[in-house]
Write a structure and sequence with these properties.
Length: about 230
Amino acid sequence: RETKYLFVEAEREALIAWLRSRLLPDRRFPIGRIVTIYYDTPTLDLYYEKRNGDYIKAKVRLRWYDGAASDDSGEIPCFLEVKGKYGSLRDKTRLELRLPSEVLRGDPLHNRTIVELPARLSDLSFRSPGPLVPVVEIRYDRYRFVDPASGTRVALDTAIRCTRAHGQYIAGIPPVRLHDGVLELKGDRWDAPRAFEGLGSRLTRDTFSKYARCCDALTQPLAKRT
C-alpha cells in the first residue's frame, strides 16, 4: 500500500531535518536525483485516466539515476516500469535494463532506442489502450528513509520539474517546476506510523501524480490548474 502527502516546497528543509531526526536513512539509496520518461498513447489516455479519477489506472515509465556511473561498456542501469493502481492498492512490475549513456543524456524523447522500448512491455504482461510513445521527461530529488518501528519505507520527493516534452503529443513549453513536493509512505499499514504524528499541519493527503501534475502545468491555463 502507498499513501501520499503533499507539502509546499518552502517546508522542504524543515521536513528533511524532521525525518532525519526520527527515521533511518535508506542503506542503499539515501539521496538521489531521479530522471523519468513517461510513456502514454498519442491521445494521452493514461493521463486522462488519472484526470478523470478512473478506478483502474496505469503509468508506464523509464527511470534511472541522474549522474549514475556507467559500466565498462558505457551503459547505465535503468528500469522500465508499469505501475498499476486499483482503488487504494498499487502494483508495480519492472524490467531492469542497461542503456548507453549517450541515449539517456542526449534527446531521449526522440531517440529510437527509447521510442522502441514499449515493445518490451509484453514481458510484463501489460496491455496498453493504444501504441505508447515517450511524452515527457521529469526530474526530481528523492530522500529515502525507513521507520525502524513499523518498517514503513518513506520517500520525500522535491524539486519536481518537467525538463522535456514531446511537442507532437503535448502542448506547452518546458521547463515547468512544481510548487509542491510529495511524501510517500509505503508499507502494509493503512494509517501513518506513530513517528509521523505532529506533521499534520505540514502535510496534506493527496493522490498525487508527478506525471499528471506536470501535464496539467504544461497544457492548462494557469487559472484552471488544480
